[in-house]
Amino acid sequence: MMLRTCQVLCSQAGPSTGAWQALSFDGGAFHLKGTGELMRALLVLRLCAWPPLVTHGLALQAWSQRLLGSRLSGALLRASIYGQFVAGETSEEVRGCVQQLQTLGLRPLLAVPTEEEPDSAVKTGEAWYEGNLNAMLRCVDLSRGLPENPGPTGNILMQLKVTALTSTRLCKELTSWIRRPGASLELCSERLAEAMDSGRDLHVSCLSTEQNQHLQASLSRLHRVVQHARAQRVRLLVDAEYTSLNPALSLLVAALAMRCNSPREGGPWVWNTYQAYLKDTYERLRRDAEAADKAGLAFGVKLVRGAYLDKERKVAQLQGTEDPTQPDYEATSRSYSRCLELMLTHVSQRGPMCHLMVASHNEESVYQATKRMWELGIPPDGPVCFGQLLGMSDHVSLALGQAGYAVYKSIPYGTLEEVIPYLIRRAQENRSVLQGARRERELLSQELRRRLLGWGRRVPH
Ligand SMILES: Cc1cc2nc3c(=O)[nH]c(=O)nc-3n(C[C@H](O)[C@H](O)[C@H](O)COP(=O)(O)OP(=O)(O)OC[C@H]3O[C@@H](n4cnc5c(N)ncnc54)[C@H](O)[C@@H]3O)c2cc1C
């Protein structure tokens, strides 16, 4: 019934309701921001485009602490990189940041910054994962307690990194098992879902006793986060990571989706992330969308280009295996565009049973999404939303928000010590994006010149 209502709404909102109006990403929306904020953004984006800063970020931070002392070096970071990309340390600071975003028409997508060192003993014990579980539960509460967004209810979203709750070693083990030809039904989503529900021990023959215990503890942590998020009406967007882990992550998501994404629950509560830079993503996305359809489950997708390009290629080269990534940037963009088209068509057919986040800073992808939404009659503030990182591509986010689209900024928060290693890792992964933020820097310079020197006209918006 709900599905039919939305399909009717979607078809009524079709292209006939006025001419298509392209969004303009010309920085006009910067008028919403203070001069201090624009200056900081320009400074930080210029610094981040300087490769040595990104490559040696952690060493530089340690060096500045020794030279300037932790107070002064901390103050410098707060006024620059931390201030630009992080919401703050305390709940109050996060709330303040979110309120400011909301006045600009933007919404929060909180992310707990966790960094697992693959082989670090400190960060692989159960206690570390239990600590992360508590941080996730607090993040659910914080997301729930933030001022409500206008628009349809049920639009509180939060990012979930599964490897904060289970070890990468276990995920790798499960992945290689899943990939084996004729892998047994021992590792199917139904069995994992049952083990989560019952809390009874699950024994998987490919795992050692210790790994089986860790699997059980991980399933219990995942179950607790998801149950809590669902009770608080917070939707969880599971991050995609490396290809050596993703099949295991997808299996866990499938198990969670069986319990949380049934139609009577009101849309998908657990979403998966699809990385267009992988050669097999389009097919996987098509198969998963069809499977959800067949099983009568809601389907939630965060569509990204992918953040781990260099490492994926390095690993393939080292192992002498086929590179799983697209051969060049253009191929990734074509793949993104095809996946986007597939999902938008799916949304237009399935209505609120299918949700999509277009997680990209790319102007062409955002343009394609908004245009196709209009052509397919998908309302701007419906099951399709947009996602960008806090402090990045504000000219795109603000233009979308001002036009009435649902736009989320991915927001890390936490102390300097917790967040800086996370930020540096993300900056290394998104090196090409930071270096490619040239247009954003130009638009910022243009607006600042206009304000400070009275040069140039105000950009129409
Ligand atoms: C809200 C949000 C959530 C995210 N969640 C995840 C996540 O869960 N998992 C994840 O992996 N990433 C995630 N990302 C990061 C994302 O995958 C991209 O790295 C980032 O957004 C840059 O892509 P773009 O479309 O914004 O920008 P663009 O500048 O248009 O694209 C840059 C991207 O193109 C691809 N690319 C660049 N050069 C080449 C090349 N030579 N060959 C092939 N491909 C190339 C890479 O994927 C690169 O990141 C997320 C991003 C956002 C905004």
UniProtKB/TrEMBL annotation:
User: What gene, per UniProt, encodes this protein?
Assistant: PRODH2
Name the chain's protein. Proline dehydrogenase
Keywords of the record: FAD, Flavoprotein, Oxidoreductase, Proline metabolism
Gene Ontology, cellular component aspect: mitochondrion
Q: What is its EC number?
A: 1.5.5.2
Q: State its role.
A: Converts proline to delta-1-pyrroline-5-carboxylate.
Which GO annotations describe the biological process of this protein?
Answer: L-proline catabolic process to L-glutamate
Keyword Oxidoreductase among record annotations: yes
- State the Gene3D superfamilies in the record: 3.20.20.220
Similarity comment text for this entry: Belongs to the proline oxidase family.
Cofactor entry: FAD
- Tell me the ranges covered by the Proline dehydrogenase domain, including all copies: 187-435
> To which species is this protein native?
Rhinolophus ferrumequinum (Greater horseshoe bat)
**Which enzyme class?**
oxidoreductase
Q: Name one GO molecular function term.
A: proline dehydrogenase activity
Catalytic activity entry: L-proline + a quinone = (S)-1-pyrroline-5-carboxylate + a quinol + H(+); trans-4-hydroxy-L-proline + a quinone = (3R,5S)-1-pyrroline-3-hydroxy-5-carboxylate + a quinol + H(+)
SUPFAM superfamilies attached here?
Answer: FAD-linked oxidoreductase
